[in-house]
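quick q for whoever's on today - can somebody do inverse folding on this one?? i tried earlier but teh output was garbage lol. tokens:
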């Protein structure tokens, strides 16, 4: 929307310039070389040395700039048509991954730790599994591992939940390996400019509820 406003302002400005300078319309629509060779200008070399010639040159530059700006704007909209338009997105869940003995399976120093390099995230969109792969994002695969810090005394996994599905209930699949998979179901609240996760189920077992557990979206996953 801001881009459209800028383009509209520039077009209005150029129209105003044209009104007061009284520059012939064809001068705006022809390349500078064509203007120079036009018979109407051949006998008026001083005109081209004046402010009018400068403004014709400036007009052409600004016209091309506006066209490039609009092309870039609509191109970005086309590439991001599957991305949410909300400005406030809060749909990341964090959790420990422990075994029955309480060992931290995300700690690479543990002999029985999970190899997170093989971990893949899939989102169910229109009934199909779509692997998360966003090279330009901070977490291209849809998750990241954080070491112990502050009140968190173990490694924790942060997972970005599916927000692309039109439904307010979405599914995110976390595949540890070809034979080990966990299903994350999220209940989302969607507004005009926000998406917020309200509840989470893992393998159909509720593990977090904003009303019952508070705002901190965190739990322990037993493996």
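ok took a stab at it. sequence:
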């Amino acid at each position: 929307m801001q881009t459209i406003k800028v383009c509209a302002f520039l077009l209005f400005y150029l129209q105003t310039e044209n009104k007061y300078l009284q520059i012939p319309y064809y001068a705006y629509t022809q390349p500078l070389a064509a203007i120079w060779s036009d018979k109407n200008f051949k006998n008026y070399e001083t005109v081209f040395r004046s402010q009018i010639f400068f403004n014709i040159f400036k007009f052409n530059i600004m016209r091309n700039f506006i066209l490039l700006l609009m092309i870039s704007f609509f191109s970005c909209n086309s590439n991001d048509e599957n991305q949410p338009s909300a400005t406030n997105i809060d749909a990341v869940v964090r959790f420990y991954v422990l075994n029955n003995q309480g060992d931290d399976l995300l700690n690479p120093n543990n002999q029985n730790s999970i190899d997170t390099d093989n971990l893949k995230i899939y989102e169910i969109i229109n009934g199909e599994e779509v692997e998360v792969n966003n090279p330009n994002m901070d977490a291209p695969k849809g998750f990241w591992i954080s070491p112990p810090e502050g009140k968190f005394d173990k490694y924790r996994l942060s997972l970005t939940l599916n927000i692309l599905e039109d439904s307010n209930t979405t599914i995110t699949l976390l595949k540890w390996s070809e034979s080990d998979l966990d299903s994350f179901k999220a209940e989302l609240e969607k507004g005009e400019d926000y998406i917020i996760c309200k509840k989470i189920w893992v393998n159909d077992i509720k593990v977090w509820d904003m009303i019952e557990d508070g705002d901190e979206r965190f739990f322990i996953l037993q493996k």
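fwiw The first strand starts at residue 88 and ends at 90. also Residues 6-14, 17-29, 41-49, 73-82 have pLDDT under 50 and may be disordered. so keep that in mind when u check it
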